[in-house]
Write a structure and sequence with these properties.
This protein is an all-beta fold and about 190 residues long. It contains no helices and 12 strands. It has a single domain (about 35-185), classed as Sandwich (Immunoglobulin-like). Strands 3, 4, 8, 9 and 12 form a 5-stranded antiparallel sheet that branches.
């Protein structure tokens, strides 16, 4: 790799005719911070006062937490929010599905605006208001305790993009009926 004032040059060994090389690139200023988004979007001002409300057992089901799309998620979404990451990304809605079974709360985020395959840099944080306590559950490519991050196709887009999946034990949540949650997502 050779870096000059305005040019970055890569040298690769020759590629045989039967092989194909695909390169994804974005130009991002060196002073750019990691783009982060909070849902509900009313919390973008960092007030953290608004929550999505989920009535326990209102949408029953079980999800496989593997970074791939599950057919159960084709039902009506629990919430959707318009999001624009920047000039080189598609403007799109972000969809969220919340459901539970007898043991777990599940949340899947279909993050349509992020069409770059850089899963080692993605971070999802689920906040759950549990009594007076604000619980935090983190997922990333390397932190899979509470779920995972995937890069896949979904029915809402004809291109690969990021999805976030969370699986939280109901025993961790001190709520009998209503669960309040918000999501914080950071890209690359």
């Amino acid at each position: 790799m050779l870096l000059t004032r305005d040019v970055l040059t890569f040298a690769f060994p020759p590629i045989t005719p039967s092989k194909e090389m695909v390169i994804y690139a974005h130009t991002i200023p060196s002073t750019a911070s990691r783009p982060c988004f909070i849902y509900p979007t009313q919390n973008q001002s960092h007030r953290l006062a608004e929550f999505h409300t989920y009535q326990l057992n209102s949408k029953r089901g079980t999800l496989v937490i593997d970074g791939e799309w599950d057919t159960i998620e084709l039902n009506r979404s629990s919430f959707s929010e318009f999001t624009q990451l920047g000039a080189s990304y598609p403007e799109a809605l972000v969809y969220g599905w919340i459901l539970n079974d007898d043991a777990f709360l599940y949340l899947t985020i279909d993050f349509l605006p992020d069409n770059t395959p850089e899963p080692y840099n993605h971070l999802g944080v689920l906040y759950i208001q549990s009594g007076s306590e604000l619980q935090r559950y983190i997922v990333s490519q390397t932190n899979k305790t509470w779920g995972c991050v995937g890069f896949t196709y979904t029915p809402r887009a004809n291109y690969q993009h990021t999805i976030y999946e969370f699986k939280i034990p109901l025993a961790n949540i001190h709520s009998q009926d209503t669960i309040q949650l918000m999501v914080h997502l950071c890209d690359g």
